[in-house]
User: What shape does this take?
Amino acid sequence: MSYDENELERLRQENEKLRAELDNERRKDTPQINSAVVETPELPVSLSEYQIALKRLMQRTAMIVQSEKCVVMVQDKETGDLIARSPAWGLNDEQVFAFRVPVGEGFSGEVFRTGHSRILENAIHDRRAAVENLREYGIKNGICVPLVVEKHDENNRVVDRSIFGVIHCFNKRKGESFVEEDVRLLERLAKSAAAVIANAQLYQEMAEDKQKLVQTIDSLSSGLILINSRGRIAQMNNQARKIFSIGIDEDLTDRVYTDVIHHEQCLEILKQCIEDCSNPGDKKAPKLDNDGEVIRNPDEITVISEDEEQLIYQIQAAGVRDASHNIFGVVFILNDITELRNVERMKTEFVSIVAHELRTPLTPIKGFVRTLLDDEKEEWYQPEDRREFYTIIDSNVDRLSRMINDLLNVSRIERGAGIEMNWQQADIRLACEAVLTTQKGRSDKHVLVLDLEPENFTAESDPDILQNILQNFVSNAIKYSDGGEVRIIGRLEPASEAFPDGSVLMGVKDEGVGLTETEIKKIGEKFFRSDNKKARSAGGTGLGLFLVKSLIAAHGGTMWVESEVGKGSTFWFRFPAKQHVAEEPVQA
Assistant: This one.
């Protein structure tokens, strides 16, 4: 044999070996399941081994045809385009990634479409080469043959023939041109290598699909655990690892689930679910769905997070079946329902609190009105006493009115109706002094201080809403502290990138019970009330700061809190000194 024939024979033998291995893998059945979760079987050979074999195939093909470059292009299932596949010989990864062409265009597209081999005489002047930008890859000439996969019957007759790509050899060595003999030689090589390349392509697609599936599972916001029939973990996504404080990099492959999960309540639920799904006909004839699966009420577990926050998860289970409909595992989904349960709890508490808060002002109103009515001849009480009674009634009516207005404002905000703003140049000192005047009569244990820099300044705002914000902050400061200083802080800030026309920084500082980090994160949420005993005993609907946050947002501002348990809190907010409000067009 000649040198080329020896290489060709060696290459053919190597191709046959690879094809046999890949065909064997393709014949293996892949389990299918009746669930949204798919367990992809582990690929028996690493992708790198196929990459090495294919790279050697490209190298030897280039050597036999005496070309500088060799690359395979296959049809992409999603776009239909011909795309170059790594590994290639003589082209780097960046060039391979950029090398693609629609099947109906270019030199490669013509060969793929017609199924006939072609010689590219001159890439510089050939319009087909220009479509593929072959000159950018330093290509001068080349040959291209189709990659064909044939299916044979038991008598070795061809029953199906399909083209799945093309193989290129570019730049004949020593500056020569490709001839028909080179085409025939590459066709022989391509015929021998087509099955190997097709199977390697299938293998790569399987590996990519598996990787996409794993990434999709890991990106789920719910926890997912797949336990096989032997009680070992087949899959656990990142969220599930986080729930049970398991390291992201910790290898859980084929480990018994009881050795990995140490949450007793969860283990009991998992064990029961596995038993029910594996033996649906046992015990008390449980209810089954149309697929024969046990219908279970979702179970819930409570988990303490790293920041000591109590989280509630709902566990749902489903059997995972193979192609023969035999259960080979159970998949568990853990949904975080903490907020849902908290909202349900807070709504229940809210109804109770509102009933109490409404009753509180109504009791003195009813009492003093009855007292005045009983004194029909106005003989029992002096005018001063009567005035005091009327003042108490008036104060409680105001309190009732504020509560009703809060509820109406919450309703408006939730409907997206927004808050009507009466913009004007507001005197910040006057607004603060009005708040202090109102609040001074509510406590004799607190020292109220006004701290403004400069002492007098104005900003574009709604004065009534600004007072509402400060009233809420100061009222809370008094309510949640036994005494001490309550300071209203105001600063006129210069222009910045965020506030080109300057801004106003305001805050209310107290020496009260303070807030935990977890509570600070929830400030401004509807119905939220601190778990502190002092705060709970002070009452309130849990709507005040929710409304304040919305009112500050209506000013184009933001709110935040600085606090330390036992040392007090400062509630800050910042808003632009000038509002950019679109003026309504004047109607003719």
The chain has a mean pLDDT of 81.
